[in-house]
Model the fold of this input.
Amino acid sequence: MAIKYLDKYPKNLAKSLWVMKPFVVVGKLFWKNIFHRPVTVLYPYEKEWIPDNYRGRPGLRFDKCVGCGMCVRMCPTACIKLIEVADDEGKPVMRPQVNLGRCAMCGYCAEYCPLDAMTVTPEYELAEYTRYDLLYGPRRLHYEGTTEEMEVKLEVTLPSDIENGNPERRVSLFDIDRPELIDNKCIGCKKCAKVCPVDAIEMVEKGVNDKGKPILRPVIDNSKCICCSNCVLDCPKDALQIKEVL
Amino acid sequence: MMSDSIVPVKEIEERMETDKMWLTMGPQHPFSHGLWTLRVQVDGEIVTDAEPIVGYLHRGWEKETENRTYPKIIPMADRLCYAASMTYTHLYCMTVEKALGIDIPEKAKWIRIVADEVCRIQSHLMWLAAVGTDLGSYTVFLWSMREREFFLDLNVKLCGARMTTNYPRIGGVRNDTTELFDRDILRTVERFEKALWDIVALVDDSSIFVSRMKGISYLTREQVANMGLTGPAMRGCGVDFDIRRDDPYDNYDLVDFEVPVLKEGDSYARYMIRIEEMFQSCEIIKQAVKKVQALGKNAPYRVKTPSRVPAGTTFARLEDPRGESLMYLVSDGTDKPYRLKVRSPIFVNVSGAKAMSVGTRVADVPAVLAQIDMCLGETDR
Done:
């Protein structure tokens, strides 16, 4: 590999004292630019082209969201909050609200959303007059032209797959992780079944204890579970644990 | 320290006591890059002492990382330095990967090299623009910023954001290279190699630039070693060391490139090193893009990593555009770091401000210190 610049330049100082050279260089560019189309755009009327994967403000598809709170936990600036709103049928549901005054546009909410309900949108003109206007509620987060490309898909490969010689990309990071019960810690309080956003946990009676009361244990339906780890975080006795598949 | 040749001293004047004056340049002085202060002691027009003051941009970065889980620190590492966001994110991910003891896929390594070198070029162009304004040529500023824009467009194309890229991940990178990215980056680099000669001609052939950089603010090898300067300031003094070549991380050992070294040690040498580094980065990009293409479209680029890092200490270092940056991680087995220490190259390089500016004239101080390539975000953290 050759050195490109150092070999050529520093030798002759005499050349560098020739004052006219910069004028020649500037003149060259001047003539080039006279016949060139302008490089600037008339901003509010014309806009620069932006690529498909541009990271603007987060968007939400209300019907897809289940309110698991994964975006709330993953947001590095803590700008997302779950609030109670009425869904299409009038039932109260929990949906994310984004404070765009704090949003860093990192795209983590879209990346970690287990159902791809959160998207990144190409919208970047977000200036408002008051801080209150920067709060984007679940309905306002909806973006009109949401396309498939705006979903950020995490494609990961398992280390065990690479070892087996089958380096296959898997589309979601959380497809295979599942919560696991540590039986002797569980007190059967049903809290996990209550917080589960997709109703994947069912409390099942497993015999009776010394006092004759039924022993309840959660049974997790793996086909329904989206691995949002709500049950793990809400468990008062740390009886549930995420088992990571690696 | 002051030699008699600079200020002619007569016998009578020797008995007179002249006051030395402290000037505070910054944080709102037009010379300062960002929010740093330089107190200079002047004897008339000659600088006799200097003291850099940093800390106006302290955000408690290291403490804040202790409250966040490992993936959440990646967007924070972006914000350490706006010009070197890719290298800092890369460094953080590398540190955690080292602590986890995992190996990332080949494709991720090559993509990281491409992204790092794009980052290096745009950081050096930002520096060239700053040098242009500090030395009094607005044209250099405009031309370098124009060239930089093409590289920021590449960042958008790759990961969707211009400067706070949030691109490397623990175990790989965020997404694969997008469609036609290979074509665009090769075109940009080819175009840039021609365009850089124009800017270089503007600077090198101008007697104003050369006379203000050549032969002033000498640093010796011993001074560099004692102060711990790294990066172009070190290589401009004849120290032949580059982490990319001497302690290779990722796949830098498979790339063929030269490390520019000069023996002069003056301000102009530091300038020349950076210009040469930009050309070498272009070469690295060309080689790395070919490797990415050769790996094919379906190659894995990210491995799944456990969320908990085993207890222990790790450090990793890499060649930042400004020098050697290092992260030291103390993990306690949870999903949050116990301590994350950042060694920023500028925080160390800024201690050379005294050695670099003593003996020069006040008007030359901005010109000399532009060669530090100041960035306060990573210095104060």
